[in-house]
Amino acid sequence: MTGVTRRGQKTLPRIRNTGNMGAMKKIVLAVIAVVAVVILAAVGYVAHLASRLNSPEFQEEVRAAVSRQLGAEVRFEEMDIALLSGVTLRRFAVANPEPFDGDLFAAEAFVLKYKVWPLLSGRVEVEQLALERPVLGLIMDEDARFNYEALGGGKGAPSATTPAPEEAAASEPSGAAPAAVPEGTSAGTPLEIVLSEVSVSGASITMVDEETDTTMMAVEDADFTSALRIAGGTTQGQANATIATVSMADMLFVRDISAPLEMSTEVVKLAPIRAHVAGGGATGGVTAHLQDGFRYEATLDVEGVDVKTMLQEAKSTAVVGGTLKAETSFEGTGPLETMKAQGNAEVVDCRIEDSKMLALLAKLVKVPDLAEPEFKECLVEFTLAGTVLSTPTVSLKGQALQLTGGGKLNLVSSTLDYDMQLALSERLFKKVTVKQLRAAFTQREDGFWVVDFRLFGTTEEPETDLLQRIGRAAATKAVGDQVNKLLGGKKLF
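Below the sequence we write its predicted structure tokens.
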């Protein structure tokens, strides 16, 4: 049908574009079909990849590769990998590298949960990073080398994936400049890393001296929680740690510890510490340096400690009662031989029982009261260098008896060498009835009768030169008496 314009001109008839619209619909449907196929293929590939990730063959490949990288056997009973959400390992362990025996590390479970989509904006979000009941066993050999230092073939050894320095140099063109770091990025990770929850529960740590087969330190039932943010080469976060028990050489037991915890690849710091020791309170801090060899620094101040309980926990044969207040600081790189320390300790209402040294003095002076005396205070100032404990000030003072002096004690051989002074009150001195013994004492300005002596031998079998001093004093008095008689009773001696 033709049309007519207002001026009488004919126009072509209008044709509807139904054919073109059908073609467009077909194209759109084809595109949708292609996208659907791509999506289905991607989902299928991810599903296939996920099934491969959890196959025994792939997990064995991962285990073997990690073992080669560490230079130590890695074991686990179960691995569950969810590509888009996380990884879980159960009952896994890392064996000690040669030549050490046993396991370096083991845990009931390791859990890593993350979000994938924030990666598109340059952000790594870890929802959970957790270790359940980990056990860390540190062993030091006769050369003061720790087992963890032998991982990866030993300290300073190039890894399996990193070329040695000479190989890297050979691969660079002659005169080539080192690769530059792009402007606006740091040498570290360019990503922002957010760890919403980092936790360790029920952890235990032991540090053993392999040469002497002694436990230098043991940590039991430690818990740790933290949240961290790492961006631009800086780390921000808060962490708290609680520890049920820390044993130092099975001699000092610190319990119910709570403290903020700072961790890095270089330093582990636990401070300020709040804890309990044998019924008393304890404060202080511990810093462990992990880079360029292991070394530690610590301070520990205690107050209100029951000395008898503390010695019983240490399985000491000494029986001392009283309340301890002490300030100590120490540092070292391993066992007792590497340790340096200094401090002071005071025991109020000090009571000493079953002391071999006091029993020896009581026997020599023939005064049974000396065997188990009561002191108002016991004060010791000390320094420790290796195995030698120097105590320049030893002061045990009571109303009737005082022991003062100073000397050295070897903590390994238990040998001792002390210059001491025994002081007896007038009441107690009257119980010394043997004339030769009385002759060895001189009276001090405060009314106490005193005698100097040397204490040596060992803590189990102490010896003293008190008998020789008494003999000399008795001989001197006998000679003096004879001279006085010859002079008609005049006292020159």
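Residues 1-8, 10-16, 156-189, 477-493 have pLDDT under 50 and may be disordered.
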